Amino acid sequence: MAAFSSISPASEPLTVMGAGLVGSLLSLYLARRGHPVQVFERRADPRRAGFQEGRSINLALSDRGWRALEGVGVADDIRQVGIPMYCRVMHDAHGQLTQQPYGQDGQAIYSVNRGHLNRRLLDLAEAQPQVRLQFGQQCLGIDLKKQELHLLDAATQQEHTEPYTRLFGTDGAFSAVRGALQKTDRYDYSQQYLEYGYKELTIEAGPGGAWQLEKNALHIWPRGQYLMIALPNLDGSFNCTLFFPYEGPESFAALQTPADVVAFFGRVFPDAVPLMPALTEEFFTHPTGSLVTIRCFPWKYDDVLLLGDASHAIVPFYGQGMNAGFEDCSVLNQLLDQHGDTAWPAIFAEFQAQRKPNTDAMADLAVYNFVEMRDRVADPRFLLQKKIEAKISAQYPGRWTPLYSQVTFSHTPYAEAWTAGQRQDAIMARLMPHIQAEADFDRPEVQALVEQEMAAR
Amino acid sequence: MAAFSSISPASEPLTVMGAGLVGSLLSLYLARRGHPVQVFERRADPRRAGFQEGRSINLALSDRGWRALEGVGVADDIRQVGIPMYCRVMHDAHGQLTQQPYGQDGQAIYSVNRGHLNRRLLDLAEAQPQVRLQFGQQCLGIDLKKQELHLLDAATQQEHTEPYTRLFGTDGAFSAVRGALQKTDRYDYSQQYLEYGYKELTIEAGPGGAWQLEKNALHIWPRGQYLMIALPNLDGSFNCTLFFPYEGPESFAALQTPADVVAFFGRVFPDAVPLMPALTEEFFTHPTGSLVTIRCFPWKYDDVLLLGDASHAIVPFYGQGMNAGFEDCSVLNQLLDQHGDTAWPAIFAEFQAQRKPNTDAMADLAVYNFVEMRDRVADPRFLLQKKIEAKISAQYPGRWTPLYSQVTFSHTPYAEAWTAGQRQDAIMARLMPHIQAEADFDRPEVQALVEQEMAAR
């Protein structure tokens, strides 16, 4: 943290609306730089007894997220409660398993509990004397001209007005701060839903808190038009998520009774059902979540800046939503290092110019990976292609990084990763017709083709 | 109109929100089919003395619009006050002119005054005994469950509630009806602005109402990053529109004083300036309009359907905004013919399924044509390519229709036209390197290439 203490504290107070994952991390970054930070959050304090988590979902932390956590010195702390997942394990309709490593030896994504991570970041933020957290503060509106937040205090039910000099909107996909920006002239905005919803379910821990599936893996039940996934928890259970069409012959609309659910799950997820004793109860009591991509521009307005889901909500299929939001914090911190802690207009402008194309690319990648996860990972040809790609990558070190690795295990800007990935996909499409088995890769004619493609890049 | 009288009148009253071009034409269609129609319009009656037109803009009516007008028997009537424009006339920075025909001999788009057309359609709608028009009725909100419109009466300033059984939202790009749909679950919505605004200006009539530029043409001053166009009026004047960046070295922001405007126009539009005596006054008193593309889905909700700009506002560069809205009316009428006047749920579902991909394609085409109009039409190579395309089209009748003609002079669905146009563009990109002048088209090697391309299609 030596770098921070060399920056002279700025007296100007900063306001953060939203104390979720991105808001709490951002507050920590800003406070460590010496800024007084005022944080408002709509929900109650998640660290209080009796707080009901909105979502108990697990998240997959990867390199971009870790770097952001390292920047405020909390990565080691979080790593202790994360479970490394080194591979995907695919479950077919007969319960047969196939696995595919995510990266090279030792590379993993980490299953982390959202609530735990959020509470830890709030503790750390609050430990900074210049951070003031206020919960139960719903943003009813913003007067962008007067620089005032209109808030409703949940405890007193009183409306109050808070002035701000600089406002960071980290209030998520349905951001009230963005809502104010959307009312300004010529505001580009888009919200697009998948025709799929999701339902959270549970695979229980075995006797003595044992994991009933391979612990260090992300489990996928790919079924073409839909899928279920499971991520491990520390207590031996797994959080499952079913991604499923709203309408159609196999859909939420088609499963109306416990008998429907039991019959359907028994048929398509036969190895999982015995591990899910609360299946029907959870299916009918847990809400069905929707899957939205939100894009907007600009992200800034005078002294207001959006970060995280507020400016770029994406679907969860690449496990990059939180990582992208955390990377926003790292990038903002870098810009503060470069420009100094008072050059806000230049920093806000450069932040949106730099981040917008990258989060747009990430939004596309997330939808692309939905098709991969629900369909392609069940195809032996696809898994063979992944193996061949790994061989090319090993044969040409530094010259070929698989797309998944670029997104997950690198800090290459998302847009660059996506462009490189599309080029590599085109090459694989030309190579694969010549390859029927892993060993074919070493055949001279295949090697000649690979060499030719690599020379042409 | 024989077809209409054979349909037995339905007693169910229909509600139309918005009496602009599409709303008034739709009301006419519905009334002629025997439906009682209740029409609400936010603005005052444009036929009343003292009504101030919001926009005096001219529109380019083309085949899709004409067919829709023919469907209610008003095409001949409108054609008398339209001015055919057979070609584009490009004005370069030295006042030199080049022209390019829009289609084959006799094919034209028609300059029509928006206000005149709207008033005429309102007259015709009102002449139907089962149509009831009410002006000054602002839609404040809609209760989709109770099927109620909340309106504010401009004259009395009283709010009132009107029930509806079937509601058609034809209230334009900033539709209040769409606003209600946007609040429903999982609503796809996008608004995207160009970084360009537009300003309406006037080229005055000459002595005795003479046209000071070629009357039967659409005039374009293409300047790479911006452009001005002019469409003829019956009184000898032209309506000009400058499409211009908001920001930058040549932009609205850069022209702050009358002297700035005179210097800029004198330099870049030297032949037009002498014909625009009110230039500086108009430049600073006329508003700067913005250019938005709006997409949304679904277009229907239970008994509500959006049509026209309310569901698919596009930028004006292909002259298809009104034509697409009018085509909505023709398509809805065809579906009523096919399914009968009571099968509304099926008709609404088919309408949006059929129209959505087409208006999405039209939105893309309109942006594509912006680049063509402001930049490519000034390029001699581009004009040569258009001539060669016309020759191919003549040589292979029925097998090659230029994209512009498919959009403007045909009823081919927009999405099909766009796909065919992209294929043809790719062919032209391969042919043009072999062609330096119009005569090259007849060279045997070029003819062989053309034959080969046509055989491969």
Write a brief structural summary.
Chains A, B: InterPro entries: FAD-bd, FAD/NAD-bd_sf, Kynurenine_monooxygenase. The first copy, chain A, has 457 residues and is of the alpha/beta class. Helix content of chain A is 38%, strand content 23%.
Q: Could you walk me through the main structural features you see in this protein, from its secondary elements to its overall organization?
A:
The structure is a homodimer of 457-residue chains. With 457 residues, chain A is α/β, with parallel strands linked by helices. In chain A, 38% of the residues lie in helices and 23% in strands. Chain A has 15 helices and 19 strands. Chain A has helices spanning 2-5, 21-32, 63-70, 75-79, 114-126, 176-182, 258-268, 279-285, 309-312, 321-339, 344-374, 380-395, 403-408, 414-431, 444-456, and strands at 14-17, 37-40, 58-61, 83-85, 87-91, 97-101, 109-113, 131-134, 137-143, 148-153, 159-163, 167-169, 188-203, 217-222, 227-232, 238-245, 289-297, 300-301, 304-306. Chain A has a seven-stranded mixed sheet. In chain A, strands 8-2-1-12-19-18 form a six-stranded mixed sheet, sandwiched between helices. Chain A has a three-stranded antiparallel sheet with strand order 3-7-4. In chain A, α2 (21-32) packs parallel to α5 and α11 (344-374) runs parallel beside α14. The longest helix of chain A is centred in the last third of the chain and has 31 residues, at 344-374. Chains A, B: Its cofactor is FAD. Chains A, B: It catalyses: L-kynurenine + NADPH + O2 + H(+) = 3-hydroxy-L-kynurenine + NADP(+) + H2O.
